[in-house]
Amino acid sequence: MTAGHRRPGAGEATHHLRRAGSRQIEEVGGLLLRSRRPGSRCRPESQGGGATVGQAAAFAGVTIKTIRHHPRLGLVGEPRRDGSGYRRYGSSDLLRLVQVRTLAESGVPLPEIGALLDAGPQRFATGLAEVKQRLTERIEELTARRDLLDRLANGDRTLLPDRACALLDRAADLGFSPAEVAAHREGMVLARALVPDGFDDFLTQAEQALDDTRFVALNKRCWAAKDRGPDDPRLEELATAMAGRFLANPALLAIPNGLQTPTDVIRYGLLNHHGEDQAPAMARLTTLVETKLRSAGLDIPQQ
């Protein structure tokens, strides 16, 4: 790249694309308004042999199949036929074919082109403006999809907000293993999907949990116990310690908005018991902790 030149960023590229699309629509409008008559359709020329269908296709920049399909859509009239029964296209026919092709290339849907070409100048201009607006919206949609692909390619597979990603980085800094961080990430993705209105509350609770050093230590002990058998007696002791910590720091027990009514029991279960099918000890530990909290008088949803 030479000095004084730089590669345009994504925002500039989108801006140029929008301007190019707008300019094309405007140029199309000017060209067609100057070269068409409202209500006109291609009619046979009264003189000259006219072009064959192959020649007309070449002159108009379309395929023979396209030319033969246009009359069925009402975009062009049927051309005259010569003495041998072959279609012959005159200059009016070719002009109409070029107009149809140009509008189609500019983004006007084929079913709308016929009415647009036969409309008066004001309706024609309004129709182009509507198409331009739809194209602009489509460009924005495609730009968002391209940005999404960039994020996926860069490894942000869960597409969590920055606040959530910062929490995951903090968990890693506190010594949680990559597998444990990945499990936390999955939990965040589920929480965002299951309780979108309460996701900020969920993140606040996660921040408070990482601020509690004793809770972090207990959490690590729970992860270390996940490969034990579900009947391991040490799980009872660990559950007692975990329940005691929850009771000592009630902020850790706050249930996010969206999980506070009886109808949200299913979502609570999906979120709080995720992954337990692959770790029976963790399922047992969660059940023990919930039982102890209910015994202490807390309203914990029943699964």
Describe the protein's architecture and organization:
It contains 13 helices and 2 strands; from the N terminus they run αααββαααααααααα. With 303 residues, the protein is mainly α. The protein has a two-stranded antiparallel ribbon. Strand 1 and strand 2 (87-88) form a beta hairpin. Helix 1 packs antiparallel against helix 6 and helix 7 (162-173) packs parallel to helix 9. The longest helix is centred in the middle third of the chain and has 33 residues, at 121-153. It is rod-shaped.
Quick description:
The chain is mainly α and 303 residues long.
Which key phrases capture this entry?
rod-shaped, 303 residues, disordered N terminus, single chain, mainly alpha
Radius of gyration: 34 Å
Low-confidence parts, pLDDT < 50 over ≥5 residues? Answer: 1-8, 13-18, 33-47
Mean pLDDT: 80
Give a quick account of the main beta sheet: strands, pairing sense, barrel closure.
2 strands, antiparallel
Task: Write down how many β-strands occur, each being a DSSP E stretch of 2 or more residues.
Answer: 2
Strand-residue fraction?
under 5%
- Enumerate how many helices there are, as a single number: 13
Could you say which structural class the secondary elements and strand pairing correspond to? mainly alpha
**Topology pattern, helix = H, strand = E:** HHHEEHHHHHHHHHH
| Straight-line distance between termini | 62 Å
Residues in helix, %: 55-70%
Order of the strands making up the biggest sheet: 1-2
Shape: rod-shaped
